[in-house]
Amino acid sequence: MSKTDTITEETVKTEEQTVAASNGETTPEFSENQETYRREGVALERMAEAGADRNRFQEALEGFRSAFQCYRKAGDRQSMGRMHYRMGFCLEQLQKYKEAISAYNESKGVFQQMNNLEDYAIVADKLAKLHYFKNNVDEAVAEYRSAIEIGCKNAEISNNLGFILIDEGEYEEAKTHLVESVKLRESSDNSEVHLSYNNLGVIEFILGNYEQAAETFKKGVEADKRDPEDDRTIQYGVFIKPEYQGVKFCEFQVFQDVDTKVSLMLNQAASLGMLGKMAEAEKLLSEALTMDKERPYLYEAAGWFYINKGEDKRAVEYFQRALPYDPSNEDLKKVISMINPYINLKIGRNDACPCGSGKKYKKCHGGVI
Length: 369
Known about the structure:
Elements: H1 32-53, H2 57-74, H3 77-93, H4 97-113, H5 117-133, H6 137-149, H7 155-167, H8 171-187, H9 193-206, H10 210-223, E1 232-238, E2 243-244, E3 247-248, E4 252-259, H11 260-274, H12 278-289, H13 296-308, H14 312-322, H15 330-339
Antiparallel strand pairs: 1-4, 2-3
């Protein structure tokens, strides 16, 4: 799932692409009077867009409202739907979330009446993301399901619904939507199919189908052709046997702002590790560690990998590198203290180690473990 959305010319159709619907109707004819209103609306919309581009959202909001009135007088429903969408965007940026939701719903209503499911899906996705990022997960799921039920064929919707359902533990439904997302993205030569492969691989990993998971993550790595700077999203990361001293930790986690290819490589490495292919897995891990430095998900993945390889000292070094970037991660703190319960004690390096080994602290747990 993408972290953010911006309003662009490519989202909901521009005025040059005004159509009656996606049901084969021709572009509507406008009377001379209607055309005058429509052209006025176009001019107002463009000025409002300029304001939005400069983050002057209140000004842009007023402009889109004025443009809407012109389009309404012109009887241009497509543009009316687009103005509701753009007003919703401005209201969201102004943190007027209830009003934003209302505007998005108005936009959906216009496009649904026109049987324009393509633009309906774009607005539904934006509304669902607003719910999701405001922690209203049930509303986001309901929005996505509703869009699919009325017939929207949209890869982003199928992928994002699958993504959310993974965290809800509804793996079978999630898989159905993600398979559909891959199908839609591959049929349109979409550049984001690797995101759907990652989510599908996570499901296979959770279900214990490690060979299938490894193959799916590999497909994602091969499909990821985007520039790393433009390829940062929210991703699930999976870990090789996330347990220590009989204590089980979460086997997957959501990470913000990750390099998707690196995430896919780490997930593939975890799957290979579960299959006992440690050398191949470590090679992938080592390569990934050079690609997106100073990110906690890299070091967390490495820490769990080396715990299961039996290299506790190396594991805690990686966990400690992750902690400053993810200081609220209680699992990290817990596993570090389990590996080395003396690591945070103020003990002289030449003092006896409190573990009772008889060694100096610097030669024992003061050297990490």
